[in-house]
Design a protein that fits this description.
about 35% helix, 7-stranded mixed sheet, elongated, 8-stranded mixed sheet
């Protein structure tokens, strides 16, 4: 038997506990008889369910909750429905049990001082099922957030649609979804917190429509319930199926966060989307714009340096060159590619979207990150984050370091070429500043997917090419042994690309035995600050026009 411990590591005494079966992993665990709202399953991390009011107490600043007008929302028995009991009787019993009028409440509050509107579901009220009253509460919350120009937090816990209200319940999916659509159209933040369980018509509507999706560990989340799926397909389901961790792995969530850390995580999310005032960094120009001033090396030597494992990765730069970084994960379709990372960052008080290839820092991590070669879901994640940045008016910074897009069978099956093409096309039309920096390898279309930018920079010892030197040598020279000749012929070094106009500037690197992360990060920070100071003064439509002309000129 394993024990239920709370999220800060305390265990209960024998006088406080009884046996219970964990609804997520199925193992028998301990259940506290006294309310311990942070208790979690020690085996799978599943959190015990709590009510809507307690959820608000844990998340909102003390004394900040101001209830909305949900008390006047009437639950109607439009079908005069009866199964073993009249629907009206079930409603009254649920009200007596929970003290709530129906399965959702909403109002205004603050998290770490940030004002917001919150709507939270009460699973104890008929399994949090969504009927007309719940749909009305969620919709009113969204409308109030829209009216007040505030972010919206949705705390979800539901078994799905309320069958006792028939097709009226079904229509709540459309009603709530269009309310969220209006939030997106107006550039307002929607954050969805998915708790155990969240299923059916709630997941297939507002619960999965947030800009940021976060879940508690072990929470069961899906469309059809596991029992329904098992009976339909007649197969055993894989371990961890439909848990929050399963969804995170499959690109459907941004994060899985323990309950004790949710408040601080949400505070970071809301703060990252609150407009601030950029600091005056006052840094001298760093990027070299004269090809003759770039340290010239043989192309083959540059390629070798660019591939060194010791070179800083995107996550290294995120930690050193930026003031903060909040990673957002998943393509919302299939998986979360570890070969490409991204999230909201700050640079000198300016909020930006940072996206980059990630190779890892050792052999084990490099294997896990596919050596920085993204699958289609990596490029779809990048595009999702670019759209996120455009919605909130955030400049986009991309860090390019990849041998190329992953060329595997699965990648082709899932549309690798289409994913890259879509990223290239849409990034060319985004009305926010975009700065791309080649930090190591700039391998073909897999690099260009992050390289359509207003300003393109590269580090002195990086390269950018239509194909790898080895690939070019094998095709045109008939042997990979001619890679050095191919590298020289392809003109892939910083000086040559600056001369060709492919890049706009070169960030110098120190002449040292190996990469110096501190110096490189400082120079990257300065180069980005200078580029953004210039680009952020340009109206969005003018940026798009200039970007079009920039790439239109190549080969004209």
């Amino acid at each position: 038997m394993t024990e239920l411990i709370d999220a800060v590591g305390r265990s209960g005494s024998d006088q406080e506990i009884t046996w219970m079966k964990c609804p997520s992993c199925g193992e028998y665990q301990y259940k506290p008889q006294l309310e311990r709202n942070l208790r979690v399953c020690a085996r799978c991390g599943h959190h015990l369910r709590i009510g809507a009011r307690r959820r608000l107490e844990l998340l909102l600043d003390e004394g900040s909750w101001a209830p909305g007008d949900f008390e006047n929302i009437e639950t109607r028995d439009v079908l005069e429905f009866r199964d073993h009991k009249p629907y009206r009787q079930r409603i009254e019993q649920a009200r007596a049990k929970t003290g709530e009028r129906d399965a959702a409440i909403f109002g205004a509050g603050t998290i770490d001082g940030t004002p917001l509107v919150a709507a939270v579901m009460e699973f104890g009220f008929m399994g949090g099922s969504m009927g007309a009253a719940v749909g009305e509460a969620i919709t009113r919350a969204a409308e109030f957030a829209l009216e007040q120009r505030l972010p919206l937090l949705l705390g979800c816990a539901s078994g799905g649609a309320r069958m006792q209200e028939g097709s009226i319940s079904l229509m709540q999916m459309a009603k709530t979804s269009q309310a969220i659509a209006r939030m997106h159209e107006e550039g307002l933040l929607v954050v969805c917190l998915l708790t155990d369980p969240t299923f059916g018509g709630v997941t297939a509507s507002f619960a999965m429509l947030g800009d940021v999706l976060v879940a508690e560990p072990g929470a069961l989340i899906g469309f059809a319930g596991p029992g329904v799926i098992r009976e339909t397909i007649g197969e055993d389901l894989p371990p961890g199926f439909q848990t929050a961790e399963f969804l995170l792995e499959h690109g459907l969530l941004d994060a899985v966060v323990p309950r004790a850390q949710l408040r601080s995580y949400l505070a970071k999310v809301f703060a990252a989307h609150t407009a601030g005032s950029p600091e005056e960094l006052r840094v001298p120009p760093v990027a070299i714009t004269d090809p003759a001033a770039v340290n010239a090396r043989p192309a083959a030597e540059t390629v070798k340096i660019a591939r060194e494992r010791e070179r800083p990765t995107t996550l290294s730069f995120a930690a050193v060159a930026f003031d903060s970084f909040l990673e957002l994960r998943g393509d919302r379709m299939f998986a979360d590619s570890a070969a490409l990372v991204g999230g909201v960052a700050t640079l000198g008080g300016r909020t930006v979207m940072l996206i980059g290839h990630e190779k890892g820092s050792d052999t084990k991590e490099s294997i896990a990150r596919n050596f920085g070669m993204p699958e289609p879901e990596g490029y779809r994640k990048a595009l999702r984050l670019m759209r996120h940045a455009a919605k909130f008016g955030m400049p986009i910074i991309t860090l390019i370091d990849t041998p190329g897009a992953y060329p595997g069978v699965g990648a082709e099956e899932r549309g690798q070429a289409g994913a890259i093409a879509q990223a290239i096309m849409e990034s060319s039309r985004l009305a926010v500043p975009i700065v791309a920096v080649v930090t190591g390898e700039g391998g073909s279309g897999g690099a260009l997917a992050l390289g359509v930018a207003d300003t393109v920079l590269m580090f002195e010892n990086s390269y950018y090419s239509v194909i790898s030197p080895e690939g070019c040598a094998a095709i045109l020279w008939g042997s990979r042994s001619a890679a050095s000749e191919a590298a020289q012929a392809l003109k892939i070094t910083a000086a040559e690309l600056l001369r060709l106009g492919v890049v706009d500037g070169v960030i110098p690197e120190p002449d040292a035995a190996g990469p110096d992360i501190v110096t490189m990060a400082a120079d990257l920070r300065a180069a980005l600050a200078n580029a953004l100071d210039r680009l952020c003064a340009v109206p969005g439509p003018d940026l798009v026009d200039a970007r079009y002309r920039k790439f239109r000129e190549f080969g004209s």
